[in-house]
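FAQ
Q: What does a multi-component entry look like?
A: The components come first, one per line:
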Amino acid sequence: MSISNRRQFLAGTSALAGLSFLSLAGCGKTTDSIRVGFMLPYTGTYAKLGMAIENGFKLALRELGDNPFGKSIEFFTVDDESNPSKATDNANKIMTRDNVDVVIGTVHSGVAMGMIKVAQETGSLVIIPNAGANAATGTMCAPNVFRTSFSNWQPTHPLGRIMVEDGHKKSVFITWKYGAGEEALASFREGFEAAGGEVIKELFVPFPNVEFQAILTEVAALKPDAVACFFAGGGAVKFVKDYAAAGLKSSIPLYGSGFLTEGVLDAQGDAAEGITTTLHYADGLQNPKNLAFREAYRLAYSEEADVYAVQGYDAGLLLIKALQETSGDLSKKAQAINAMEGAKIDSPRGPWTMSRAHNPIQNFYTVKVNNGVNSVVGTAWEGLEDPAVGCDL
Ligand code: PHB
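Then the predicted structure of the entire assembly, as tokens:
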């Protein structure tokens, strides 16, 4: 953070701290607990993603024991339903009504934009464990907002080059029509064209619709060399199954950002075999940290971990840095921010560092579904940093 930004932020939040102290009278805030708020989707197409994030986060916090720094940890939850029109209300509920010390949120880029606007007013510490909205660590970057996942620019940045290397020069891109998909597409186009590819058609469905029939008929008629896409969660299950059922799988190879096959392979079954993606994580990463993490997650939740669980876990590891620096007192905001800015996270995805804009600088892998596992077949980009256009932290 630049010195002038830091001064401005701290001046702003100490005034706010006074206000929130007044408004807190009688609302039961004690200093003997650390108040953590989850603003995540617990219903809808991204419900499973929200739960995996919460699970991963709690797994990391276990590393602190039951009473870290002599305090208890209190959790507050709001289901944001991946609904941008409710984002402001939901962010106010968790930041102002519940008055949490830190918000872990959220998954959907549109909801994140609304949430960040509120956080800029309240000064609340926010750790984004998924939503990739470029602006979160770009034009809307803020001293109190950190991300442990990715910017939407990142995962599809290397994808076009990989497809051209595989011999595919004419591609169709399919996505839900909202921020995350549109930013994934823009970044894909950049990389694909730079490598000599051509996007012959962009096809959209409104979020969170899963009626793909008309689009798949159009793909069959267009006969591209390959299809690239952005889908995740429940929608990714339906898209991959429909793509195979339409008979396209063997003639037009399917690519995507790795969310397409994360946490959903069991549900997709054979339809997912052979899909190639790029992502900052893969279940099949063979480093000791990932193997231990996956084992601990399986033991704790009787489920397989996925990229969302990892991003939640890393949000926990990042918060631990802030807690260690402040002896558990997150009202020491400048110290907490300092610790998070300098963080080097020993993640199951491999080690990563925080960029000046508060977004991970991390490796991206080429991942292929092989016998029901997201297997790493190469490193698509080493140490990729989002350009953070418009951020002057
Ligand atoms: C997003 O809306 O930013 C988003 C949602 C789900 C993903 C990735 C990005 O898997």
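Q: Is there any commentary attached?
A: Sometimes. For this entry: DSSP finds 13 helices and 14 strands in the chain.
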